[in-house]
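Standup notes
- DV: blocked on the single-chain target, sequence here:
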Amino acid sequence: METIGNLARVEILHALSAQGPLTTPQIYGELGAARTNTLRHLEALEALGLVVADEPPNRRHGRLVTWAVNRAAVKATGEALIGYMLGES
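- DV (later): unblocked, structure below
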């Protein structure tokens, strides 16, 4: 839940959901955030399966990576969070 509780990560998910796949520079430009912070957030979201990249981690250095939201995973995570807040799990 800590990963989802971070406002920057929620904003990344929102931007990807609303605007479709975005490159890393488009994401940090949209958020007005530093590149390194944005990458750290994207990696955390990717570890949970909430976002996917068009390049595997070992091939990203020096490449323009495009990110997309995994809508099914975001929806399932949101439902789990609501269940937790309602004391259902």
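- Follow-up: The longest helix spans residues 71-85.
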